[in-house]
Amino acid sequence: IMGTMIDISDRKKSEQANKILHERLELIIKATNDAIWDWDIIQDKIIGNGVYCQLLGIDIDESVDFEIFISRVHPEDFD
Length: 79
Hints:
Elements: H1 9-32, E1 37-40, E2 45-48, H2 50-56, E3 64-65, H3 66-71
Antiparallel strand pairs: 1-2, 2-3
């Protein structure tokens, strides 16, 4: 039986650093109380955090398509 040893210490360090950054981002999002959204271009869906969903009156598990999202942009903010 032959085996291969692979040093995964760099990957583990990277995963830990990403976990810390993710936790810090979550704290920042909670502290600012900003509506944050992300557009999945491939599926043409917009998802957001709790504040975003509250503003739109949707459940946290819901998404909206781009047309609905853009229809809610204030005319002065459209450009």
